[in-house]
Design brief:
single chain; mainly alpha; 19 helices
């Protein structure tokens, strides 16, 4: 988890730097073009993986035939998906009314081959909990791709600099992992392995496909009914919010899924793991989302310049969705780890039908504001369905999970209210107001956590304290040698 955290927060720092620089070199139109194509890229990637990546992790002892079979399946699907995207590019460009998207999609689609080539190696590293290598490679890749992207943006390449960033970010890890991992495919395609993994992976594929479509449907609608600049503003708000809401959860869930799979037969142990992870995530992420909501305007002006200030209302509404989104993976992964892929698909279908209904009806009735409210309702509805599944199949009852989260939410909301009222009374300048709200929020949150002896606070300490102890001991050892 330490290595995964190092990776995640290094990427966050690099992303912030990237956002600050590129927001001044590129326009909302440039980001909008990439955002409009996102749904087609993620759907194609879902078809390539087909759920087999998670199937290989969920299977306790996969064989060489298993890995080779899925490797060649991934390559074949990459060829098929790229052919479809290449042929559909002119139609998609006409759909949005932007001819440039045809060329952009055809070039960016080349990432699919790199993605297919790299899936097995990345999953081998995850299954063996070798997050150190993943972290080091990812950090180096991010710095490299950022450098090249900034140079291209400065030279006036516009949207093509973002295309180059995506291709470079996928290519470098693929090359490094290929030479680092000694595994090589054998010339075999085992239908027996395929059928065995397909029985689990197929429903995971459908689940992932539905989730990706549900997450991207608002981008498709905004791109169709609004212009590329509005799409760019939404993409910046959405990307910044997801960076925050996933910052902690992705660190934990990358590590916990292989561990969930190992204890899948012990429901009480699994339930306890879910409880600790859920409360720890909520304790850290809930205040983060409220701080970002309160300080949204100074943050966007400081990081991205006045050009992006119209993204602030979008971002503030999406932060309310981030409160639920940060907890999604903990519950989802536990159901996947115990092999209930068919159940996940059925309930994901229900969640996504309702989610699309929320988003589409919100857009139809109230325009852009209604769409954003639909996104929030979609996220919370999905969360409640997820905790219902955990309650039924693992035994961590839904009402217990809500009861465990309730004190954290109450404290987070109460302090947010105090900071908002205080800001209105003091009427400070933009940056002073943001600094005041941040300082007051953090101070009151920690103080109340200690005073009421919040259980989630104790869980968080059990993770953080060993890390600091380890760092302190290493420093003492270095000083002792001197």
């Amino acid at each position: 988890m330490i290595w995964t955290a190092l990776q995640r927060y290094s990427i966050m720092l690099i992303s912030f730097i990237s956002g600050i620089i590129l927001a001044r070199l590129l326009t909302p139109h440039d980001y909008g073009c990439i955002g409009m194509l996102a749904i087609f890229m993620v759907m194609a990637e879902s078809f390539i993986d087909g759920g087999f990546g998670e199937a290989l992790i969920q299977k306790k002892r996969p064989t060489q035939d298993d890995y080779s079979t899925i490797f060649f399946w991934n390559i074949a699907m990459a060829i098929a998906m790229y052919a479809i995207l290449f042929a559909s590019a002119p139609i998609i460009a006409r759909f949005y009314g932007i001819p440039l998207l045809c060329s952009v999609l055809r070039v960016q689609g080349l990432v699919l081959f790199v993605y297919a080539f790299n899936i097995i190696q990345r999953n081998l590293l995850r299954k063996n909990l070798n997050f150190k290598v993943i972290s080091i490679v990812t950090i180096i890749t991010s710095v490299t791709s950022l450098t090249i992207t900034v140079i291209m943006a400065y030279q006036g390449f516009g949207v093509w600099s973002l295309v180059a960033q995506n291709i470079i970010a996928a290519t470098i890890p693929a090359i490094v992992f290929w030479f680092y991992i000694k595994w090589r495919p054998t010339l075999v395609f085992s239908w027996q392995s395929f059928r065995q993994l397909f029985s689990f992976g197929f429903y995971m594929f459908l689940t992932h496909l539905l989730n990706q479509f549900g997450n991207q449907i608002q981008g498709l609608l905004i791109g169709r009914f609004y212009n590329s600049s509005i799409m760019g503003l939404y993409s910046k708000a959405y990307g910044t919010e997801r960076l925050a809401s996933q910052s902690i959860s992705q660190v934990m869930t990358q590590v916990t899924y292989p561990l969930y799979a190992e204890v899948q037969d012990n429901k009480s142990t699994l339930a306890n793991m879910i409880k600790r992870m859920t409360m720890t995530l909520a304790y850290v992420t809930f205040p983060l989302m409220f701080i970002l909501l309160l300080c949204a305007k100074p943050i966007f002006v400081l990081l991205y310049s006045d050009r992006w200030v119209d993204s602030v209302p979008f971002f503030q509404v999406l932060c309310l969705a981030g409160l639920a989104f940060c907890l999604q993976s903990v519950n989802n992964q536990s159901i996947s780890a115990i092999g209930k892929s068919k159940v996940m698909f059925v309930f994901t279908l229900i969640k996504r039908i309702m989610g699309i209904a929320f988003v589409v009806s919100g857009l139809w009735l109230f325009g852009m504001k209604g769409l954003l409210v639909g996104v929030v309702l979609n996220t919370w509805f999905s969360y409640f369905v997820n905790i219902g599944l955990v309650s039924r199949y693992i035994g961590y009852k839904w009402w217990k999970q809500l009861a465990n989260l309730f004190p954290i939410l109450i404290i987070a909301v109460a302090i947010a209210g105090i900071c908002y009222v205080t800001g209105g009374i003091l009427n400070l300048s933009l940056y002073a107001d943001g600094l005041m709200k941040f300082t007051v929020y953090v101070a009151l949150y920690v103080l109340l956590s200690v005073l009421v002896r919040l259980e989630a606070y104790q869980y968080t300490l059990t993770i953080v304290k060993p890390v600091f102890d380890r760092i302190r001991n290493k420093i003492l050892c270095i000083l002792a040698r001197k």
